[in-house]
Amino acid sequence: MNKPDMRSCLELIKPYVPGKPVEEVERELGLKDIIKMASNENPLGPSQFAVKAMQEHIEKMHIYPDGNCFYLRQALAAKLKIAPDQLIFGNGSDEVLTFITLAYINPGDEAVMVAPSFSEYDFATRLVGGVPRFVPLTGDNYSYDLEAVLRAVNKKTRLVFICSPNNPTGTIVRKKDMDLFIERLPENVLLILDQAYLEYVNDPEHPSGLDYIEKGHPVIALRTFSKIYGLAGLRIGYGIAPAEIISDLNRVREPFNVNAMAQAAAIAALEDSEHLDNSRNLVNKARKQLTEGLAELGLKPVPDQANFCFVDSKVDSKQAFQALLKRGVIVRTGDIFGLPTFIRVTYGTAEQNSRFLTALKEVIAEIK
Predict the structure, then answer these.
(1) Residues 6+ apart with CB under 8 A from 52
(2) Closest to 311 (Cα-Cα) out of 197, 143, 142, 146
(3) Which of 188, 288, 294, 305 could form a disulfide with 299 if both were Cys (CB 3.0 to 4.6 A apart)?
(4) Which residues, other chains included, contact 100 with Cβ-Cβ below 8 Å and sequence gap of 6+?
(5) In a 3-state reduction of DSSP, which class is residue 328?
(6) What is the block-wise mean pLDDT of the chain (368 residues), using blocks of 10 residues?
(7) For the chain, which domains are there?
C-alpha cells in the first residue's frame, strides 16, 4: 500500500521554538547563576498554597486523574461566576487551541490572525489542513487594525484569533473597539480571544471575554495557570465558552489530558489572592524599572499590559541573544517574529532587571 505524501503539508508547519532552558545553557556554556527572562514565567514562582497541595498529592500519582477536572471545574466556575459546563481544561491553553482547530477547521478552511502574534495559532490551523490569513499590526506601538482583520474575513473563514495582551508585543485591544468588532463579525465565525496575560492588565478599558460569552456571542476566551499563577511546569490552561461550544471541544479532547498534580495545584492557587497581588506589583515595578533603564540606553519598549516588554535593541537580536547568553541572561529574539532587531524580555525581580540592563548596555556597545 502506498503511503500518502504528507511532505508538502509538513513543510508548511513551523515547529514551536521555546525559550532556551536554563539547563541547556548550563550544559553548553558551563555557566551558573543564569537568569531566564525569555518565557514570561513568574519570577516569584508558584503560590505556596499550590506547593503544599502538590506535596499532599504526591502519593496519589499511581491513580489516573479525573478526566473531567470536576473539583477544579467547580472551583473555577464559582470564582468566574459561570456555569461549570462553560469550561474546558487543557495541557496548557496551547492544547485547547488544538481542540478548537480539530473541532472547527476542515482542510481548506481559513483562520485569520495578526502578525506578529503567538505562533501556535498558525501551527494549530495548519495542523488540520487549514489556511492561516495574516493581518499585520500597525504603527510604532504595533496596534491591532481590527478593520483590516474584518476585511480579511471571507466565506472560507471559520476562526479569528485575537491575543490581548498580545504576545510578543504586550499591546491590547480596548473594549470599545472590541465591542464594535464583535458586532460586525459574521455569526458563523468563531472568535478566539486569548487572554493568557489578562491578570496583569491595568488598563480599565481592556475587555473580558466573559462579557461577550454572557451575551451569547460565539467567543472562546483562553486563559492559563502558567503565567501569573506560576504553574508553567505543570501545563494547565483553560477555555471559557458557551456550553454548546465546550461540548464540541470535548468531543476531540483526549482522556486524562490534565494531570492530577496540575489540577490540585490550580485549585489551591485560586485561593491565594496575596500571591496574585504580589505578582502584579512585581510586574508594575519592573515595567517602570526597565522602561527607565532602557531609556538611558536610548531605547523605547512598546507600551505593554503584560509581564514582558518588547523593545527594538537597534542591533541584531541573534547577536544580542548570544552575547547576553554568555553573561548568563536568557531573552527572546525578535527574528522569529519577523523583527530581527527586537528582543522580548520577561519582567523579573529588581536584581534580575538590573543585571539585564547592565548586560544589555555592554552587549550593545560590543556589537556596535
Answers:
(1) 268
(2) 142
(3) 294
(4) 124, 159, 190, 192, 220, 239, 249
(5) coil
(6) 50 65 64 88 98 96 96 98 98 97 97 97 96 96 96 98 98 97 96 98 96 95 98 98 97 96 98 98 98 98 98 97 93 95 98 98 94
(7) 7-45+273-367 (3.90.1150.10), 53-269 (3.40.640.10)
